[in-house]
Amino acid sequence: MRASAIVFPKVSSIKSNIMSAESMQLAASEFTNTNLEVLLTEQQIQERVKELGAQITAEYANGDVVMVGILKGSCVFMADLMRAIDLRMTIDFMSVSSYRDGTESSGDVEILKDLSNPIRGKNVIIVEDIIDTGHTLARLLEILGTRGANSVKLAAFLDKPEPRVRKEVKIDYCGFVIPNHFVVGYGLDAAGRYRNLPFIARVKDPSAA
Ligand code: IMP
Ligand code: MG
Questions:
Q1: Are strands 36-40 and 183-184 parallel, antiparallel or unpaired?
Q2: Residue 166 in contact with residue 137, Cβ under 8 Å?
Q3: Using CA atoms, how far apart are residues 183 and 178, in angstroms rounded to an integer?
Q4: Per-residue pLDDT at 173 exceeds 90
Q5: Is 132 tagged catalytic?
Q6: Is the pLDDT reported for residue 134 higher than 70?
Q7: Distance from residue 44's CA to the centre of ligand 1 (Å)
């Protein structure tokens, strides 16, 4: 066989990895969990992300783009969005923790993982899962604004503009504006769970989540 040939596994070996119908019924399905109400379907999300990718591709024709994903919530959006952007580009990640006074974000941000490479002279697009109070992103934009980037813009998959006290944060590329529900899926979590859902859902009973 030539080294460059693509090898597909035999159907018989795939079959042995598929659960029987019987064991499927016994396994609890996360995707059809009855405590979830779907707000945005996988198809709606994919269509919108492709539109955002096309918009970014058109606006950065001169390139030198660095997409900076904010871990962990942005990972799914980032993976889809970057494949919809037809430009020469690189990616990097940051992890931050925002301190909360009770349930409200206080605006203090600690950098848990910083960028791997300098952004001086680059066109940075920060990729975030959701803007709620906006405190985390407002502070992060301040921090990244001191590092000599050519431009710093923000792509947020969801915008929840209804919450009470809200920092002014300009979202340059917004996936969807949603009502003030706690939502999960497509990277967003509730206590670490649900990031793997291919759709966005509202958790009906958070105490059972
Ligand atoms: P804020 O904009 O500083 O209030 O914080 C935004 C962060 O809070 C996001 O990056 C999420 O990690 C988290 N967050 C806010 N709303 C939700 C939600 O509805 N579901 C899951 N995480 C959320
Ligand atoms: Mg987040």
A1: unpaired
A2: no
A3: 9
A4: yes
A5: yes
A6: yes
A7: 21
